[in-house]
Specification:
Strand content: 5-15%
CATH class of the largest domain: Alpha Beta
Strand order of the largest sheet: 2-1-3-11
Distance between the termini: 59 Å
CATH architecture of the largest domain: 3-Layer(aba) Sandwich
Radius of gyration: 23 Å
Mean pLDDT: 84
Shape: globular
């Protein structure tokens, strides 16, 4: 069945409105967020509207330097494709409202940090803003190249179009050198979620757990209660491999451990009352218990995927679910685009809580695009006003179009899935440590630890402890230095 997605668009637009003009002085982030929560509740019964600030920059150019592929937000022209045209309209709306000319220049992902350094060191004022992938942005920000965003009153960090709860996760010592803007879709594309094949659920007499999700009782135990019910040697070769059927499969085996750990509320970095981060995995018994259960889910018993999964691409991993040979698929929104040809219907659920003691759901996102204002910018308020307007328009006009185009036909087969999609969107979580310690703790070797026992995984983690502590110490020093 194929239901229209109009209600999804309306659902997205029912979030808090842009509110105050971007040029107004920002109140403290904490107070503003409290006020924003009250405003969001009051507006749930009518479609949100926004009004951009009445500023006239008399045709000034606003230039952004961005990393190719990951961080590009704008398009040069319309082409009839709905998402492309929404991006184009986003740029034109802001240009017309603020009387500016926006230019976006892209540069290779792996060259942008060096390029940003060259620009700042040379005092080059060619760019009003710079955007790059999270781990590169952190490396660049450590060197003091950017203006703390909380010092730019025209940027309203507390507004939902700056990532909502994501903003708090990106500060150190209450300094915000970068933020997640709704003008860029990266953090939405990589939002973790759970898919459930509804045909298989019906065949096995299982109920799609929408009610559990929405009443807050959707846990790892409930998800895994299906056990090995869907596991079968379909091709009859006596070996569980890529041609067989499973109860649980990951969208990408390289990411499954961090997706589930962050879903469980376990983060590489936590922060104290002064907003100073500290390493939270070492000696954490809850973490050890969790990685053991993740390992057992995918690599033990009849659901052992050792001979079935590729470590390289989603296309290989997702084929099992796409062909109707898996009950659950733990993946990301962007992976669902590859399932357009899937014959079976599926439900969309959020990542489960670890247990009943967990207060909230957490939907991991990663490889986020961070926007920054370089210290060479002579008029940070101008840069902030344009960035804030782009983020606001992106949130209200472009993001709903993205959700509709991505979700049509497959992602949202019923109204209950739409509710879960919104919940995943609202509970996105970034672990700053995953970016900072990419090569040490949460990065390319994560999947290797998944194949080990819990004790072996902890031993591998311990080897990076000293270097991780030094890396974090340097980051804290860089972010909390003299910023007067």
């Amino acid at each position: 069945m194929k239901l229209r997605l109009i209600s999804l668009v309306l659902l997205c637009s029912l979030l808090a409105a842009c509110g105050e003009q971007a040029a107004q002085t920002q109140a403290s982030v904490t107070d503003a967020q409290a006020q924003e929560g009250d405003a969001a509740v009051a507006e749930t019964e009518e479609e949100a509207r926004y009004e951009l600030p009445g500023l006239d920059f008399e045709g000034r150019e606003f230039a952004m330097l961005v990393a190719t592929n990951y961080c590009q937000s704008l398009v040069p022209e319309e082409n009839g494709e709905v998402l492309n045209d929404a991006k184009y309209a986003m740029g034109r709306t802001v240009e017309e409202a603020l009387h500016v000319k926006i230019r976006e220049t892209d540069i290779d992902l792996y060259s942008i940090v060096a390029q940003a350094q060259s620009l700042v060191m040379a005092g080059d004022t060619s760019y009003n803003s710079i955007a790059m992938m999270d781990r590169f942005a952190i490396e660049s920000a450590k060197k003091g190249y950017y203006v703390p965003l909380q010092k730019i009153s025209s940027i309203s960090l507390s507004k939902p179009y700056w990532g909502g709860k994501l903003s708090d996760q990106l500060s150190i010592g209450k300094n915000y050198f970068f933020a997640v803007s709704a003008m860029n879709l990266r953090t939405l594309r990589t939002t973790a979620c759970v898919l459930m094949n509804t045909r298989l659920a019906a065949d096995y007499g299982l109920t799609v757990p929408y009610d559990d999700v929405m009443d807050g009782s959707w846990t790892f135990e409930k998800m895994t209660s299906a056990g090995e019910i869907a596991c079968a040697d379909v091709n009859g070769d006596g070996v569980m491999d890529a041609g067989d059927s499973y109860t649980y499969v990951p969208g990408d085996i390289r990411r499954i451990q961090t997706q589930m750990l962050i879903g469980f509320g376990t983060r590489c970095l936590e922060k104290d009352d002064s907003d100073i981060p500290y390493l939270a995995l070492y000696g954490n018994e809850r973490y050890i218990d969790q990685i053991a259960k993740i390992h057992d889910l995918f690599l033990s018993g009849a659901n052992d995927l050792s001979n079935a999964l590729s470590y390289d691409t989603f296309s290989a991993n997702g084929l099992i679910f796409q062909e109707g040979r898996a009950l659950y698929n733990i993946c990301e929104f962007q992976h669902i685009e590859a399932l357009r040809e899937m014959q079976d219907d599926f439900a969309v659920l959020v990542m489960p809580k670890y247990d009943d003691s967990q207060a909230e759901y957490h939907s991991r996102t990663f490889d986020a695009t961070y926007h920054m204002v370089p210290v060479t910018e002579a008029d940070p308020e101008f840069a902030g006003a344009v960035l804030d307007a782009l983020s606001c328009v992106g949130y209200h006009d472009m993001v709903p179009v993205f959700l509709e185009t991505v979700l049509k036909d497959k992602l949202s087969r019923d109204e209950r899935s739409k509710e879960c999609i919104q919940l995943a969107f609202d509970t996105r979580m970034i672990d700053l440590g995953e970016s900072l310690l990419y090569d040490k703790i949460m990065g390319t070797d994560v999947y290797k630890r998944l194949t080990k026992s819990a004790d072996q995984a902890v031993s591998m983690l311990e080897k990076s402890r000293k270097s991780s502590e030094k890396t974090l110490e340097k980051l804290i020093t860089a972010f909390t230095g003299d910023l007067a």
